[in-house]
Amino acid sequence: MELSSPFSALPVLAGAALGGGGVAAVAIDLFEQIGEQRNRADGRAPEPVLIRNLSYIVGNPRSLKAWMFLIGCALYAALGGATGGLQAAVLSDHNAALAPAGSSTNKAKGALLVVYPIAIGVCGALLVLGVRWVPYTTYPKAGMALHVVMAGCFQMFSIIYCFEAVTLATEMFGADASITVTRKVFAYISAACLGVSFLFGGYIMGKTAQLYQHESKVKTIPSQGQDVNNQSANASDDTTPGVDRQVDLEESGTSNPSGILTAKEVWSIRKWMASLAVVQLSIGIAVSAVTITGAAETNLYNGG
Question: Which chain regions cross the lipid bilayer (predicted)?
């Protein structure tokens, strides 16, 4: 796609901001996991790691990965809204030119092309800010409910925007144009991923919260074990009761009532989280790609 207008940079920057922010957040989290496993202080062998869903990644709103996603969404709201404004102006000119001949279908709604990108960016930003305002640790039910609502709105607005962009391309360039077909492909991908997310998202979110609780409790075990070790005069210097207890609990065949999971349960949850991450990234990349193709319309904007 040739960018013949200076305004064509807007949709490219908007799509790159949203897609790049999500991918960067997931990548940073993955590298952090790898680093943590390589530098384990408990003497145990490194565990395999997988990418994790954004709901887990933004759990610490002050982390770099959460900031990357937040900045990406904020930039998308601004740049995507501006792109929609240009598309709406081009659509208006297009309809005005066809009006005398009575051939304008006027199915695409210019205002929605502005509203949807802004809504997507705001909902994505609230995924991060919501955790800060209503933290999981203090308000677990309210925090999770807010997060689920914002995630659902983010995905729904993304899918609706994709199909609205298809309608726009159909009206501007025709149903068989390559830009229309390309947008349809990404719209169907995002819709399919949304269906998968609705079917399994709630279950995985529950498991994500369970793993978060598990990891929080496991971190306290070594220090508890060290206290016991210091109080026992007969304890050997080579023993680490906290770590031994952690290993016993994780490798046992049944879950511990304290919230500590078995190793198999942890790995199973991580696989579910990785699957949800792929679905979320697919939706984000699809809407980013559709946004970038907005250059097809902004190329036609003449500033009038």
Answer: 12-31, 66-90, 110-134, 146-166, 186-206, 272-296
